[in-house]
Amino acid sequence: MLSWQQQTTVANNRSARASVVVHPNAEAMSEAGSDEFDDERSKLGEYEGDRNEAGERHGVGKALLPNGDVYQGQYERGKRQGEGTYRFKDGSRYVGDYYQNLKHGQGTFYYPDGSKYEGSWVEDLRQGHGVYTYPNGDTYDGEWLHHVRHGQGTYHYYETGSKYKGSWVNGKMESAGEFIHPNHRYMGNFVNNNPYGPGKYVFDSGCEQHGEFHHAEQDVAEGEWGELASTAIVTWIPKCVTGLTLWTPGKDTSAGEKETAPAKEEAESQPA
Prior knowledge:
There is one protein chain. This protein is of the alpha+beta class. Helices cover 16% and strands 53% of the residues. It has three helices and 16 strands. The protein has a 16-stranded antiparallel sheet, with helices on both faces.
């Protein structure tokens, strides 16, 4: 069997690239908007559309901002509120709900690098359920909190067809989850994007290999300030092979073995 590093080299490399997409400075700049320019009192920008009795932007209108951004949609008492489309001069675009000038509700953001997020927003941040499609074709479908993957979700690797399904904490695979490959899967606990502790490989042939992953730190190179950088070496320690079981992360392997016994006894009691 290939080691965990060999099985997931391509997937982890693509995940590393994808994680950069999730938190780039350019993305944050694109989403920031141009509220500082969109101020009637400063007499900056051009606006065509409805106004209320107080002269505030109210209803449906279109604003051309001094930096080249364009917003077209609903306003309420001078602020973007309701449905609208905001086009940034860098080519990115947001289509969806606004509240008090902030992306809030359901909306889709198209990023300059070709990636796309479609889902829930809370005060300008990805939060709730959403689907992010990355430039390389990878997708994440699940929960978000404060702009990062957090909660339950599935990350699909486009190139390999593999996917991780399980828990995320602050953008990383954490706690119970399963890594699903074309002809087998791994079920267990994860720490900092790597499997850790007891787990099992489940093969399509109808058998399982139980064991556990051990971590060891290894110094790999000096950092900018002379300190040693380290990386986790993940090693799989096999224990036994069984038939299919109902074992789940958190139980020991012996419990999983015992669950196969009733099924075997029942089969032996049946007439030939």
